[in-house]
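dumping this here so i dont lose it
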């Protein structure tokens, strides 16, 4: 092969590689930019994200990689600008804001606020877990000691209601909202797609590997805050990789366990503290899960993970494999 032919071949290879690498920066106006790039990119592309805030959710249904440099945040939330007004008919310290649609998640100073589902059987029935009682008084045993605030949406009034600890005025806090239940980033119905080195913040769910994905991965990401699930692997996803991620919920709750001494010298966690779990399981949207693995068929998953929830629940699990 002549030098000229070899040079031409190398040039063609380099040009093809350059075409498959896409570099993005955040929009100065906050408009979505990643999804459009994903839609236009050929299979095998690498989308590199420069530092900054990307206000969107992203769905990937082709084999490509999204890689973020340090400081990349994908966050679909937006400011919650509605005016808070007292709602004394529901109790002292209860406030309402007229909103024409239900938020998916509500955040106070960037942290997840516990939601009460007023349509559940348990919360429609008169008693300590009735939504009206919870909104007025907090949880049955501890009020707003551990669950430092609650919110709910009433479609019959087109309003969001909140009650914070110490009957605090919500207008003095910073509020944001996520409207969609979509994960911040979804890898779905594809193979060999990957997400690496990004922060996924303020999503109803963080990331999903789903719908028959094969050999897809979420690696070295910071996932949180999130409301329902940090990372989901489900619906036939196989040979998935979730590795070296920091996954944290960061809720507006006091998660420091209180121990109780018994006559025999044994210690146990106070039953009062379990209301942190009960508010979701009994009156809210059920379980909150760091990594949710469901309906994955013959999935082989290997991951190393960080699970972080306040200062008391920091754990690093060694690498393990689920078959």
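and the seq i came up w/
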């Amino acid at each position: 092969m002549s030098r000229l032919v070899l040079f031409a071949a190398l040039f063609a290879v380099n040009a093809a590689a350059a075409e498959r690498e896409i570099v993005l920066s955040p929009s100065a106006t906050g408009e979505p930019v990643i999804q459009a790039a994903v839609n236009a990119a050929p299979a095998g592309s690498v989308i590199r994200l420069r530092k900054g805030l990307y206000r969107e959710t992203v769905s990937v249904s082709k084999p490509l990689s999204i890689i973020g440099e340090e400081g990349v945040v994908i966050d679909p939330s937006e400011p919650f600008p509605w005016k808070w007004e007292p709602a004394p008919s529901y109790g002292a310290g209860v406030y309402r804001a007229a909103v024409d649609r239900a938020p998916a998640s509500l955040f106070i100073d960037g942290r997840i606020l516990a939601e009460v589902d007023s349509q559940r059987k348990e919360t429609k029935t008169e008693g300590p877990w009735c939504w009206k009682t919870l909104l007025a008084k907090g949880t049955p045993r501890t009020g707003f000691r551990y669950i430092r605030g609650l919110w709910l949406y009433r479609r019959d009034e087109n309003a969001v209601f909140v009650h914070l600890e110490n009957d605090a005025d919500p207008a003095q806090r910073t509020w944001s909202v996520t409207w969609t239940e979509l994960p911040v980033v979804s890898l779905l119905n594809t193979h060999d797609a990957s997400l690496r080195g990004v922060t996924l913040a303020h999503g109803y769910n963080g990331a999903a590997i789903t719908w028959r994905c094969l050999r897809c991965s979420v690696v070295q990401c910071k996932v949180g805050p999130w409301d329902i699930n940090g990372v989901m692997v489900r619906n036939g996803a196989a040979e998935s990789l979730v590795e070296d991620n920091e996954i944290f919920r960061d809720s507006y709750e006091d998660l420091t366990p209180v121990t109780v001494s018994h006559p025999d010298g044994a210690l146990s966690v106070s039953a009062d503290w379990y209301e942190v779990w009960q508010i979701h399981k009994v009156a809210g949207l059920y379980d909150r899960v760091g990594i949710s693995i469901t309906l994955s068929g013959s999935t082989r998953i290997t991951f190393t993970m960080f699970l972080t929830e306040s200062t008391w629940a920091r754990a690093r699990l060694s690498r393990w494999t689920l078959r």
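Confidence is low (pLDDT under 50) at residues 3-18, 298-323.
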